[in-house]
Amino acid sequence: MKNSISQIKKALIEKKISVGELYDEYLAKAKSNNNNSFNLVIDKENNISSINDSQSRYDNGNPLPLDGIPLGIKDLFCTKGIRTTASSKILSNFTPNYESFVTQQLLNDGSIFIGKNNCDEFAMGSSNETSYFGPVINPWKNKNSQKDNLVPGGSSGGSAAAVAEGSCVASMGTDTGGSIRQPASLCGIVGLKPTFGSCSRWGIVAFASSLDQAGPLTNCVEDAAYILNSINKHDFNDSTSSNHQREDYLIDINNSIEKKIKIGIPSDYLEDVSEDILNQIDNTKKALSKHGIEFVDVKFKTTEYALSTYYILAPAEASSNLARYDGIRYGVREEGESLDDIYLNSRTKGFGDEVTRRILIGAYVLSAGYYDAYYRQAQKVRRLIKNDFQRILNEVDFILTPTTPNEAFKIGDKLDPISMYKNDIYTVPTSLAGLPGISIPSGLSKNGLPLGVQFIGNYFEEKTLLQLAALAEKELSFNE
Amino acid sequence: MSNNWEMVIGLEVHAQLKTSSKLFSSSPNQFGSEPNENVNFIDSGMPGMLPVMNFGCIEMAIKTGYALNFKINKHSVFERKNYFYPDLPQGYQISQFEFPILSEGYINIESGDNQKKIRIERAHLEQDAGKSIHDIDPKYSFIDLNRVGTPLLEIVSYPDLSSADEVINYISSLRQLLMYINVCDGNMQEGSLRADVNLSVRKKGQELGTRCEIKNLNSFKFIKQAIEYEFQRQINIIDGGGEIEQNTMLFDTSTGETRAMRSKEFSHDYRYFPDPDLLPVNLSQEQIDKVKPLVGELPQDKLKKYLDNFSLDKEIAKIIIAEKQNANLFEKMISESTVKPKFIAVWLVGDIFAFIKENNLEVNSLNDKTKDITDLLRLISDDVISNKAGKEILPKVLNGEGKPSELVKKLGLEQVSDSGELEKIIDEALVGEEENILKFQEGSDRVLGYFVGKCLKATKGKGNPKLINKILLERLKK
Fold it and tell me: What is the CATH number of domain B419-477?
């Protein structure tokens, strides 16, 4: 079992280890791993003043909430003075002069960034295979086929692999249609996507603005609460940031929820799933039933439309969000005879296939004559999906689903985009509804690979969602 | 011949709003800075940057809504208008499309001797783009992003205009109103007010023809030239058996001609969709009502007041209300003095405006001199000094060289209004003028002028002409 944030903080307070030694330990791991989980690691000397400041706060007995904790940051967060690429060629030379809101909160709370995690290009992918810097390798191996390199999931694949392999204590990811929860599940760790509007999007390279949400990937639920306490704040500079009162997510994390809990299991999610996946749901149900939690069957009316809706709306927004990468002001420029040539060359060479595909889909569904049939229709369906969730969450407190339909697969296995998109079947509907979801490890597959289950809560109910997840985690914990 | 033809014109007027910061960023909104000085990470389209709406722009739109008789919509939506150009860093312009903030307004303009109501379809908020500069280097173009994100209100009329003069009147009236309610500085040279002209032609009474849009006109002269050229161009094509293609035209200011920039076939598909970075604008009735008192008195209200209450001459009244600062100066003088408003108005549009023009001053710069001006006007209207002396002293008063009464003394310009003294002078002047006196008595009025002049000359111009006139008449009629 890897060390949790509270264990590490205890060791730092008790002087069993220094902040510098802690950094060395994780940095060594980050540098020696062969999983390609980082696009960039930060040498100790470049973090030395943060390390020293942190150590002196421990020495003075007033450490900050995340003091000295080495974190991995998905290469989608703009980090001041540190190259930020979105794992794309077109931004491969880009160093921002500003710090994203979320990472700034983490710095304010004393954490130290060990590097920028590899991810799918512009967060578009479910296997981390679309990165310009090459695929990330899942630290887990299929016990029946040890030599095969498996995907870590995506798009926050590097963030998930880095935590799983132990090269950072926790990491930051972003989730648009499952990009935190799915890789967390495939790498055997915890991944939380907060309610849309919880954590500011300011300074995060945008994929689909109405869906993108930052969140932590951690070894345990309590660590997720640590990170959420830091990053979940109102930001005036993000117009979609909610200004509701935030709670302390840590304080009651190990206490049981006061009221009686009812959890819905959507039967329509479990048609045609493998025994491996069914086992996860059954185990979770059994474990939590012991605590007096009631389970009921629920049925969505909109599940079959979720993926198509997502693959209209997300590319539509992406096609516009990615228009700024034109090679004119920053990023990689390919020269050309005319302005149109510069655009054409820079963008053709700067973007990979999956990104290009989504820009084309997005431009198509927004174009004159197709807007009503695709984009407008998809917006209507999105509203129905939200209503569908609302209807079910009026009956139950939480929803339990598998996180993914399958275990980690071999790199190169799912070449066809549609079968890749289907990997997000359980996470996409939650994203469209804007609801919070957390994936926790629930057991191993027949091949000895980790699988996860997802709990979905109501809007801004992260506190009880984390309490429930912590309870389930205790019952379901398994050893590698 | 163009006699049977009429033009049908609709206008899109872009007014830059006079806010201190931009529509979606905190960068200063000002003209004339060094290139790329007023640009922040949002304006330059850096990764992960997000727009935050400046509510001041909404208030200005609401004010405009009141002034132009619009329906002010409680629900409006910012959308993205997608196209690529180097001076558009985000790759899209944030604008309003399906749900504009203002709809269905109108303005009354003058058309010949009549008033004409011009209906306005909508007005919406949007960002301005930057500027591309192509004439510095033979190989490279340069980009100035200062203007990026400047708030614009695009005001779209119905095709209710039917001559270049009407178009000019329409834009002038809009400009005047926008300046009155303090939402736009109206400076066309700096691009604060620009117009796109949509023009088609038809034989009188026939269906609407195919229109062409002439983009980005920023002076009355060019607007008039462009309209007249385009009108004739379209007629010539149709008369020659051709058909009008729906084109976007550019007006070449050096040749005075319009030429096609792109045809409809190559027109952009802007792929509008609601901007997911921004929430819809939802206004309460209270928020809308709160703006109403800020609108203030509009030009047409002032005109009525000036004619009805102050009995000004209509032409003079129009000159005064043409710009709000004129009206402000005028009303300040009225409130500070008992001199008749009509008398003040004549002097204001005459000698005072002439002085301002000659010295290249702002009307506002006289705001602290109004007391001195009205004191001087009081001396003139009370016949303490002559009109002529007033004209002489006015520039000195406006230059701050002294108080009017002191200047009058110093320059010895006080009128001689002592009738005893004047009678003496007049009696002397009439000596040896028997022949002319006889002419007057035979009915020649011209002779009176001659005598007045002679007497004034004898007083070195200081004699009160009215009094001289009076005494002379008494003497001559004897």
Answer: 1.10.10.410
